[in-house]
Design brief:
This protein is mainly α. It folds into three domains: about 90 residues; about 190 residues; about 100 residues, no CATH class. About 65% of the residues lie in helices and about 0% in strands. It is built from 17 helices and two strands. A two-stranded antiparallel ribbon has the order 1-2. Helix 11 packs parallel to helix 13 and helix 15 packs parallel to helix 17.
Length: about 400
């Protein structure tokens, strides 16, 4: 019964799902109060695959709205309504739910009850807080990841979150809450607006890389959450058109590098499958040499190379697949050939960026690659270098 409700979500749009769940709610009657606990647990396990509904959120909602139910079907009806609501907000034509920040998502920086002085003082104390304080401030600092002041954005908000996550102080439910707010920012048009100043998306990506690292070390994301995040991450990197790196006044933006860091952490996670890694490689290829006449000068090729290297270390792509990837990467188009690169800014930037990436990847491979990775990657990589050089 429960499975049939959720399996429908993979094949039908919101109207069909709502009707199916309503039918279950009307028809199913399972006597015995002893069953409703087991049923609730099964529902919680199933619904946890949906990236934006978590165990603790659902448990709280069931307790609030369902009460001391004697029939599991009532709980099923409530859960189906929650799931249908996710589908009601699906992106047109995709059937994929649109991630949304929860109503409690903070919106101010510094957080309520804190000042900039207090935040900087916390940094001077190595971000030491009690466990409850870490969970609360982790969420409260989200808006500060887009603050125009680099001392707050980079020096406090990101550094605090990274310190706590790497120190295993952030609980999984807190990380999932962070994910539910930050992942939508990757593909939100808000990040492209001039008023945003270009900080939101790069620092969402950098923080999400820390969440992926957490999940790699001690898994807590569902397969669907992981896949959804991988898709959003690749889409973000491919879409980056703001190539600002460092500014003396406002600090770092560095969208390409931060996006590459996120893809690198995904590549290191053995639970991320080959289709997701294929998306990563396509996104990396799109940014090796931007279509604009832009010369990378802030280390972006090295970060893109690292994401590629760790994807190769997974050993899920054949030598033939790598050969095709490098051939496409080193296609000189729209130039007539690589020799003509020296006659235009566009050509020079394309050659500069492509060579920087290939050389960084070659160094990583020679210094750190295992024998199998070298066997698959070195021949097409050397050929690519010769073609561009």
């Amino acid at each position: 019964m429960i499975d049939s409700c959720f399996d429908q979500s993979d094949r039908h749009h919101e109207q069909a799902l709502s009707g199916h769940c309503a039918s279950i709610r009307r028809q199913q009657r399972i006597p015995g109060s002893h069953f409703h606990i087991d049923c609730t647990q099964r529902i919680l396990r199933r619904i946890a695959i949906e990236p934006y509904v978590t165990h603790f959120t659902l448990e709280r909602a069931v307790r609030k709205h369902a009460g001391p139910l004697q029939h599991a079907s009532a709980i099923v009806g409530f859960i189906c309504a929650v799931f249908a609501a996710q589908w009601a907000s699906a992106q047109p034509g995709t059937g994929q739910p649109v991630p949304k920040s929860t109503p409690e998502a903070p919106s101010q920086c510094p957080p309520a009850g804190k000042s900039r002085v207090a935040l900087l003082e916390l940094k001077s104390q190595a971000f030491k807080l009690d466990p409850a304080g870490v969970q609360a401030l982790s969420i409260a600092l989200i808006p500060c990841l887009a603050d125009p002041d680099p001392q707050i954005r980079d020096g406090v908000a990101f550094e605090a979150l990274s310190t706590w996550m790497r120190g295993r102080q952030v609980k999984p439910e807190t990380a999932i809450r962070l994910l539910s707010v930050l992942q939508p920012q990757l593909t939100s048009q808000r990040g492209q607006q001039a008023a945003d100043q270009g900080f939101t998306q790069p620092f969402a990506a950098l923080t999400l890389a820390e969440i992926v690292r957490m999940d790699r070390i001690e898994p807590f994301l569902s397969a669907r959450q992981r896949t959804s995040l991988a898709t959003s991450s690749a889409a973000y990197l491919k879409s980056v058109a703001d190539y600002r790196g460092f500014d003396a006044a406002s600090g770092w933006r560095h969208g390409v590098a931060h996006g590459a860091d996120l893809l690198m952490q995904l590549a290191l996670n053995l639970r991320v499958d080959k289709p997701a890694l294929d998306e990563n490689l396509a996104a990396i290829a799109a940014q090796v040499s931007p279509s604009q006449e832009h010369f990378y000068v802030y280390g972006e090729p090295t970060r893109l190379a690292a994401a590629t290297f760790y994807t190769a270390q997974r050993q899920v792509h054949s030598a033939e697949e790598w050969t095709r990837w490098f051939e496409a990467l080193t296609d000189p188009a729209p130039l007539e050939n690589w020799k003509s690169a020296f006659t235009s800014q566009r050509g020079l930037s394309k050659r500069h960026n492509t060579l920087a990436f290939l050389q960084a990847l070659y160094t990583l491979l020679q210094e750190n690659g295992n024998a199998q990775t070298k066997e698959r990657l070195l021949p097409p990589l050397q050929k690519a270098l010769e073609a561009v050089w």
